[in-house]
Amino acid sequence: VTTVSRWLARETESIVSGVRASVAPMPVATDLFTPGGARDSKRLLFVGRLTEQKGIEGLIEALAQMRHEPLLDVVGEGPLGPTLRARVGELGLADRVQWLGSLPQPKLVSRYRQAAALVVPSTDEGLGLVAVEAQLCETPVVAYESGGLTDTVQHDRTGVLVPPGDVRALAAALDELLDHPDRGAELG
């Protein structure tokens, strides 16, 4: 059995007795996802399906709690789309959230390069390939300390990890990153 993260290996071994899972890297387009461009210190990025597991609901709530008023680009589609758009409106964030739909990988590169940070509020994510793509573009990642994200995001080295589901901690981590743009550049 081969998995893409240590977390998935442990989960597999706990479910299937007698199995010893090995971890093998997931392929990523290292020729496509490269550094470059200029960051917008007031722009955050979310890339993923609009589902409960991806945690975008918590990100929207965190956005409303932040001291800073960053813009948020949302790349992805999914069943929670209408509910999320309504919640953004209720919170008075409609002018700060841009819904981009699904984008092909080549168009993600410029989004990663522009963002002050990629936010990955997923829980029990197998790996978090978007975190790897962002890091290849030297974009810091702010994520929940959950699942395979702990294999790719090193707290205070390549990004910031906060307790899973802790919306206040997510908002505080994003504010802290935006307080110190040089810190984001260092993490990236």
Helix-strand blueprint:
Layout: E1 2-3, H1 6-15, E2 22-23, E3 40-47, H2 56-65, E4 71-75, H3 81-90, E5 97-101, H4 105-114, E6 115-120, H5 129-136, E7 141-144, H6 149-152, E8 159-162, H7 167-179, H8 181-187
Parallel strand pairs: 1-2, 3-4, 3-6, 4-5, 6-7, 7-8
Outline of the structure:
With about 190 residues, the protein is of the alpha/beta class.
How would you portray this structure in words?
- This protein has 188 residues and is α/β, with parallel strands linked by helices.
- The protein contains eight helices and eight strands.
- A six-stranded parallel beta sheet has the order 5-4-3-6-7-8, with helices on both faces.
- Strand 3 (40-47), helix 2 (56-65) and strand 4 form a beta-alpha-beta unit.
- Helix 2 (56-65) crosses helix 7 (167-179).
- The longest helix has 13 residues, at 167-179.
- It is globular.
- It starts with a strand and ends with a helix.
- The relative contact order is 0.19.
Question: What are the main properties of this structure?
Answer:
globular; 188 residues; 38% helix; 8 helices; alpha/beta; two-stranded parallel sheet; six-stranded parallel β-sheet
Number of helices: 8
State the helicity in percent bands: 25-40%
Query: Which structural category do the helix and sheet elements fall into?
Result: alpha/beta
Strand arrangement within the widest β-sheet reads 5-4-3-6-7-8
Secondary-structure element order, N to C: EHEEHEHEHEHEHEHH
End-to-end separation in angstroms reads 33 Å
How many strands, what sense, and barrel or not for the largest sheet?
A: 6 strands, parallel
Write down how many β-strands occur, each being a DSSP E stretch of 2 or more residues. Answer: 8
| Share of residues in strands | 15-25%
What's the Cα radius of gyration?
Answer: 16 Å
Query: Can you tell me the residue ranges where pLDDT is under 50 for at least 5 consecutive residues?
Result: none
Mean pLDDT: 95
